[in-house]
Request: fold
Amino acid sequence: MSDIVVVGAGQAGASLVARLRNNGHEGRITLIGEETAPPYQRPPLSKAYLLGDMELERLYLRPHHFYGEIDVDLRLGSRVDHIDRAAQTVSVGGETLHYDALVLTTGSTPRRLPAAIGGALDGVHVVRDLADADAMGPRFGPGAKVLIVGGGYIGLEAAAVAAKKGLNVTLVEMAERILQRVAAPETSDFFRTLHAENGVDIREGVGLEKLLGEGHVTGARLSDGTELAADFVIVGVGIAPGTALAEAAGLEIDNGIAVDSLGRTSDPAIWAAGDCASFPYQAGRLRLECVPNAIDMAECVADNIMGAAKNYVPQPWFWSDQYDVKLQIAGLNTGYDRIVTRPASGARSASFWYYRGDTLLAVDAMNDPRAYMVGKRLIDAGKSPAPEAVANPETELKSLLK
Reply:
């Protein structure tokens, strides 16, 4: 029986250990996490949990006792200091643990503002873990002034929560438009209008020059010379894969911990899955930052540790909740050259279909679950309906599957 050590007690790590036991692994399994809370959902941190609509226990992926029931040694509040690849051991809390297989599910970390421009001031927050959400939660009082730096999904979700709680919200995005890195102009326009209707002041094409204040943040100076007052700041400028441990161990790094199609790193005894890992995709490599990838890749790695030898094939999908709008995204829009708009099926709804030539790549569906489900099935099956049929309001969506 082999000993398996999993470093990183998030969505990927929790999914992996459960899959190993479901697959019949009888050896020792140790799951190590730096946080003191058992594995939990992260997406609600910038949505329902921050809004106060979800209690702490509902965040947990499984009750704490579950891990003992499946005989997993869950070590919380613990940090792995070193990997000794030659001895096949990890050092954690002064103890040395042996592994036959080591899995890195170390996730990602939020990018922070440099201290030189005020990033270290009190009242400057990121949204990544439970401690982050708990630290900023008390600041969400009606009438408070919040500045949000970054117009990606995390920033927009935080803006929606703040606006719903009665705060004065200003969001600045250095790029020409919000969501520029991840979505078409049509999707950006949809959410810009939505936030404007809810009183959010969105400023695009303007950067942050410096945060102001002594000790605690009191405002900001923007790149256009404007100065804004702020009681606190939320930074949503992207995340970086958690590669420090892998780098120190000399593993290959390529936009994350580089793994092969099975999920194995450059060391055959070490595997990786989730946000931290990049895998072969088409002619290059891909790293996905989403819950479905964390689950699917972790389960694939668990299967392969037990000899399945199956390639990981991602089926990307994402979601975002803002106000009363649920955005569901199927596929990857990289390389699109055409957007097809599907007529809205109801109030505050729309879907945008990404094509490269005649090939359907992705679908953004706002309050249109039917468009999302049909689009996802088409993409997963490698089918591309005629753009004209998608755009025609007389076309029944289900008929596109035929």
